[in-house]
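Hello forum,

I keep getting stuck at the same step: I have a sequence, I want structure tokens, and every attempt I make locally crashes halfway through. Rather than fight my setup again tonight, could one of you with a working pipeline run this one for me? It's a single chain of 867 residues.
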Amino acid sequence: MEHLTVNSKARGGYSPRRLLLAMLGGILGLLTHVSVVPGASHWETEKLLFSGQYDACEQLARAEVERGVWNEQWSELLIECLLTRGRYAEAEQVFQNSQKRYANRIALRLQGYEIYRMLDQADQAEKQLETIYRLVSQSPWRYSSSRDQITLGRFFALQGEDAREILDIIYDRVRKRNSKYTDVYIATAELALEKHDYGMAAENLEVAAKLEQDNPEIFYLQARAWLPSDTDKGNAALSQALKLNPRHVPSLLLQVDYLIDAERFSEAETILEKVLEVNPLQPEAWAFHAVIAHLSGHYRGEQALRKVALSTWTSNHQVDHLIGRKLSQKYRFADGATYQRRALVIQPDFLPAKFQLAQDLLRIGKEKEGWKLAAEVQGQDAYNVVAFNLMALKDKIERYTTLTSNGFIVRMEAREASIYGTQVLELLTEAREALCSKYEVSLGEEPVIVEIFPRQQDFAIRTFGLPGGSGYLGVCFGKVITANSPASQGPTPSNWQAVLWHEFCHVVTLTKTNNRMPRWLSEGISVYEERQANQAWGQSMTPEFRQMILSDALTPVSQLSAAFLRPPTPTHLQFAYFESSLVIEFILEKYGDDILRRILVDLAAGMPIEKALERYMAPPQILDDLFASYARDRANRFAPELDWDRSLLPAPSDLATLTTLQAAHPDNYWLTKALGTKLVRDQQWQRALTVLQPLYDQFPEDTDPGNAAQLMATVHRNLEDFKAEEKLLRHLASIQPDAMDVYSRLMELDRAAENWEQLYNDAQQFLAVNPLLPRGHEQLAVSSARLKQPRDVISAQKALLQMDPADPAAAHYQLAIALRDIGKFQDAKLQVLMALESAPRYREAQRLLLELVQIMESPEPQVPRDE
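Reply #2:
Ran it on my machine without issues. Output:
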């Protein structure tokens, strides 16, 4: 049965339904448990329903109904079979006959509501709900059984009552009276899933699965509860549901949902045919067909399929909601929003559509309407976890600092904005100039919105609605970018400049294609453009990636978007990014950049990606083979002199064993690296250099932890050969985007050698990873002062003053000097006064104050020293 979202409206007093709900709670508290045990034959027949033997179940149930057995559950079971098969008119006939005998049975009435909706008889459907309300109001004590109470819980949910009250007043009390009643756990999980409370759902379904091990519905719901956070558990539950019933429609549709996300449309259509074999009129199946048609560029077909989905129930708001939700998941937010608006025309109080519309609008930059709708949902449904999280985050975002420039609106926590907000705007402007012209894109009048979050949880809530998403550094929705700041990433943050360059490239390509591009293509171009902007940025070939290419881990181009969904390990996700960028290199090398731009133009016109690729390159299977050959060739040309046989590496590995094996296999990467590491740890410096130098010569681009350059730099530092150490560190700095320890050590060497220009560059690299540490700003201030670049001194000293420096007087004094040098005498005077406030006897500051007073009182104009 389909359950609509609960609407927990804040209102004074009790509505009639809420009064009835409260009264039922009182009755439940007085009654003892009355167990309803179905007969064995009914239970065995229900097992046929569970296993997908619908015809056999129907025959047995119909025989019992026609025999006149006084038990309404046979009628309900027969109706369930007929509804599952889409035989709604027959289901109505059974219902009409049954209600004459069981006029006061509310579970049967709830089935009647479902029947009449599917027959497009809204008045009759509503009449069934009114009848339930009347029956229970007249004789609430009659509906005290666990079965009736769960039916009432679902009824109240349909009526929009507070989910918490349904849980507390009904479900929790039923559970206390009858802890082995399976349906209470199922009903609780259904309600929790509607509100995105996956933890509560999983907890209840775990109990249900132990009580009733052959019910596929339990494992289907379990899959929905686990998939957002644990794909292994989710997939296992879904597999179990389909093992119990290969024709279980909800589980098959959940598979289709995933396959559409993975852009495996032909497989999705095959499963949809299985669904339609069970029920040729199944609305969700036809809605999914409409989604596939849209994503394949068949827009007329999309509308025809939508009509089929609505053919039996023309006011089925769920159809438009489903189509819109899936389009939004494919980054077609404007199209998705259109569908949600259609759903809301049909049923204005349908909160899932309203909240999805709110999220769509927020992701396309229509913030005023988006936040208004989100607030309405949160106000009407206090149990909606996602809405609650989002509105709590809105309060934080409103306290952020907003920076605007060159078509960008950047929102950052106030302290972070004062430290590196200007650099964020400068980087985005640079990316715009580089990428918009390259891809022939105009971003139009609407600004690009960038929100940077100092807490990973806040980023996840803004981006996904719920905490999680720890593998993501940034996300682009079109003209809205969300990103984690270095503060959210612990002691080893990623290069924030690379992240923003990557995400802004998405803005360009999504605009170019009207958001009509597969994920692999979008990610591949962004990673490729990272490497074009800075050779240290973006994923590059690694020993592990090499092995994955040469094994069975390489994903065909035609299936590459699926590699981003539920990857088995974080390494597999990173490999998906790298492989996608390798496809872009393959296209550019084999066909040229003009072909890539033509593909993007065709996607914007609605052409499916496989058709666009075939038009300019080759059919899917041939293209898959061509790329696989290209990738294997790249892998084989990766440090080709080295032996990559990892099986030679012993475990455990003592020094003697490693020495013997490495001597026998001097070109083996794994043995040489392990031996070199061991020698460095044992401080056998000269021997370590002898072992590591050939490895470095053969594979200088190695960036994996413990690489030869890193180990050799350690050796040279201990041997006090600082020039050799610096040479190796500079090489590492050129190929590693976030090597904080490398940049830090280079700054020490620069400072000792008074190499101010190099210190300036290394400080900038340090700050591109973490601008929230004082060290980078301190060295930038020193080098800028020596290079007579007062504006950079100002930037660095202002940042330091946000970090509670150990010597604030010195920071104010240095800032005053820089301000003086660019002619900002009043500002300089203010800073020197602040220095003297911290240290009244600061002689240099006193002298500077006198100088500034004389300058400001002089009638002669003063020329700034840096102009």
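Residues 725 and 752 are 14 Å apart (CA to CA). If your local run keeps crashing, start a new thread with the error log.
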